[in-house]
Amino acid sequence: MRILVVEDEHKIANSVKKGLELENFAVDTVYDGPAGYDLAATEDYDALILDLMLPGIDGLAITRKLRQKNIHTPILILTAKGRVDDKVTGLNTGADDYLSKPFSFNELLARLRALLRRPKNSTGRILQVGDLILDTVTYEVRRNRQILKLSGREFALLEYLMRHPDKVITKEQIISHVWNYDADILTNTVEVFVGFLRKKIDRISSGPKLIKTVRGFGYKISATGE
Ligand code: CA
């Protein structure tokens, strides 16, 4: 696993690097924002560790720029600030986790490993299946560069499916994750909403049909296969 550490406090950067290398990670270190952004945008890392306050471009701006470029490498933000607001901003910007200084190396390692264990599509702001992209913060859904207009319920259903790509999801699972407890929903209703989604997602594209019916079980969203 290859990690980029962007941290202007050399002492912290170097001790993180040393510690991670002892755990068999490959680690690159840079000490300012622009160098960090350039490397993160051009090299293939498994995760980024970004300090929040950096010379040149700060960690949040780096995160935002990378996500805008559709680079979804997991990001752990380091910061001296422990304020809830900063954490919310960081996560909304597209960071995956957050660690306040001072931190213990073991906590950093545990969080990094948790990030690396996550299936690529299950967390984070942007979900992608094939050429279908869903932004969980702006609620924008695009396929093949076209913006799709979805109702709130269609969006929730699509988000749920896209968080479990290539997995069969039952209608009962959909009901319990997309509708609230009070809603009295029948499996027919799920079929109707899946039909709405298919019209919007699969009809506008000459690409593969993404929402598949698995007879007798439910549905699956996948860019490959039947
Ligand atoms: Ca700093």
Notes on the structure:
This protein is of the alpha/beta class and 226 residues long. The protein folds into two domains: 2-116, Response regulator (Rossmann fold), CATH 3.40.50.2300; 126-221, Orthogonal Bundle (Arc Repressor Mutant, subunit A). Helices cover 40% and strands 21% of the residues. The protein contains eight helices and twelve strands. The strands form three sheets. It has a five-stranded parallel beta sheet with strand order 2-1-3-4-5, sandwiched between helices. A four-stranded antiparallel beta sheet has the order 6-7-8-9, with helices on one face. A three-stranded antiparallel beta sheet has the order 10-12-11. The longest helix is centred in the last third of the chain and has 16 residues, at 187-202. It is elongated. It starts with a strand and ends in a 5-residue tail after the last strand. The mean pLDDT is 87. The modification 4-aspartylphosphate is found at residue 51. Pfam families: Response_reg, Trans_reg_C. Residues 124-223 form the OmpR/PhoB-type domain.
Topology of helices and strands:
Blueprint: E1 2-6, H1 10-22, E2 26-30, H2 33-42, E3 47-51, H3 59-68, E4 75-79, H4 84-93, E5 97-100, H5 105-117, E6 126-129, E7 132-135, E8 141-143, E9 146-148, H6 152-162, E10 169-170, H7 171-178, H8 187-202, E11 211-214, E12 218-221
Parallel strand pairs: 1-2, 1-3, 3-4, 4-5
Antiparallel strand pairs: 6-7, 7-8, 8-9, 10-12, 11-12
Helix pairs in contact: 2-3, 6-8
Bound molecules: calcium ion (CA).
Calcium ion is lined by residues 8-9, 51, 53-54.
